[in-house]
């Protein structure tokens, strides 16, 4: 059987950081469907083992479950260093969102957001891009959010970390292109994941997408540009927020959605 161009470019293994549930599990499934083997990182061992076994059974691929907390970069680096497989695709999906008024958010929660949403994707990108550059092929996907396109009240720190990921991916998209490494930021709107459902409680935002749709659109966009915004409603919203409205108006509009979050 002929090997697909995706597998040739991004195989033989993909590492999904935060790959056992929600969007991360959808990324893992979409990658498995393309025939790549997987390394999946998450904290809950039972959920991770079950997902790894299911993907192996369904797609006949090798799946390495790696139980680790992405807030502890040194531990994650050590565990990845012990692997003997070659990683050609890296997806950073996990995030921590301290939701609610800044004045009542503890230093610990802010530090956790910085560790999981900034330090880990930045240093894992450094770690995993080095062998990709050497091989002159590979792919990196960093999860951002529409919340990161402007200030988002009551989500201020989370939104700032998501902005960091988008800007990092944009710069690296250009920088690593000559080395054959594709970098992409996914600026997603609302996605039906356990994390989102827990935060939103009852209401669902317009343009909310299923996780499998976001994962599929993102992988299809890899290699085509620095940024993907899955969903027409979300593309219109981003155009409005970043190009048509003043910054003040964009923050005010975002505040209508995020202002009441606690
Ligand atoms: N959901 C949305 O509406 C939405 C919108 C825009 C952007 N995004 C972005 O999309 C990504 C996924 O969002 P989500 O919150 O909805 O999550 P999710 O897809 O439900 O993924 C959470 C996954 O990450 C793992 N994880 C979380 N924290 C971890 C940690 N510290 N160490 C290791 N693994 C960890 C979880 O497993 P364990 O719990 O077992 O560790 C789980 O497998 C995030 O980057 C988010 O910013 C989401």
Give a short overview.
With 262 residues, the protein is α/β, with parallel strands linked by helices. The chain is built from ten helices and nine strands. The protein has one domain (8-258): 3-Layer(aba) Sandwich (Rossmann fold), CATH 3.40.50.
DSSP strand (E) fraction?
Answer: 15-25%
Distance between the termini: 53 Å
Second-tier CATH architecture: 3-Layer(aba) Sandwich
What's the SSE pattern? HEHEHEHEHEHEEHEHEHH
What number of domains? 1
Output the number of helix runs. Answer: 10
Q: What class would the helix/strand composition place it in?
A: alpha/beta
**Mind summarizing the main beta sheet?**
7 strands, parallel
CATH homologous superfamily classification: NAD(P)-binding Rossmann-like Domain
Question: Segments where pLDDT lies below 50 for 5+ residues?
Answer: none
Strand order of the largest sheet: 3-2-1-4-5-6-9
Fraction of residues in helix = 40-55%
Give the tally of β-strands.
Answer: 9
Under CATH at level 1, the class stands as: Alpha Beta
Query: Ions, cofactors, ligands: which are bound?
Result: NADP nicotinamide-adenine-dinucleotide phosphate
- Backbone shape: globular
**Radius of gyration, whole Å:** 18 Å
What is the averaged pLDDT score? 96
CATH third-tier fold name: Rossmann fold
């Amino acid at each position: 059987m002929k090997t697909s161009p995706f597998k040739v470019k991004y195989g033989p293994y993909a590492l999904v950081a935060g790959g056992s549930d929600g969007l991360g599990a959808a990324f893992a499934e979409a990658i498995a469907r393309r025939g790549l083997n997987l390394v999946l990182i998450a904290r809950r061992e039972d959920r991770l083992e079950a997902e790894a076994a299911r993907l192996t059974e369904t797609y006949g691929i090798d799946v390495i479950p790696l139980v680790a907390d992405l807030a502890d970069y040194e531990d994650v680096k050590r565990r990845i260093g012990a692997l003997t497989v070659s990683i050609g695709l890296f997806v950073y999906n996990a995030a921590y969102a301290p939701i609610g008024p800044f004045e009542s958010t503890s230093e610990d929660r802010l530090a956790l957001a910085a560790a999981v949403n900034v330090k880990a994707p930045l240093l894992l990108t450094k770690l995993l891009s080095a062998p990709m550059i050497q091989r002159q092929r590979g792919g990196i996907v960093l999860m951002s959010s529409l919340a990161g396109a402007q200030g988002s009240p009551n989500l201020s720190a989370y939104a700032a970390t998501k902005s960091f990921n988008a800007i990092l991916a944009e710069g690296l998209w250009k920088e690593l292109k000559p080395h054959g490494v594709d970098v992409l930021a996914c600026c997603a709107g609302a996605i039906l994941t356990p994390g989102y459902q827990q935060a939103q409680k009852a209401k669902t935002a317009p343009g909310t997408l299923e996780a499998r749709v976001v994962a599929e659109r993102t992988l299809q966009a890899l290699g085509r540009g620095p940024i993907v915004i899955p969903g027409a409603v979300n593309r219109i919203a981003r155009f409005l927020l970043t190009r048509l409205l003043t910054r003040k108006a964009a923050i005010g509009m975002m505040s209508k959605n995020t202002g009441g979050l606690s």
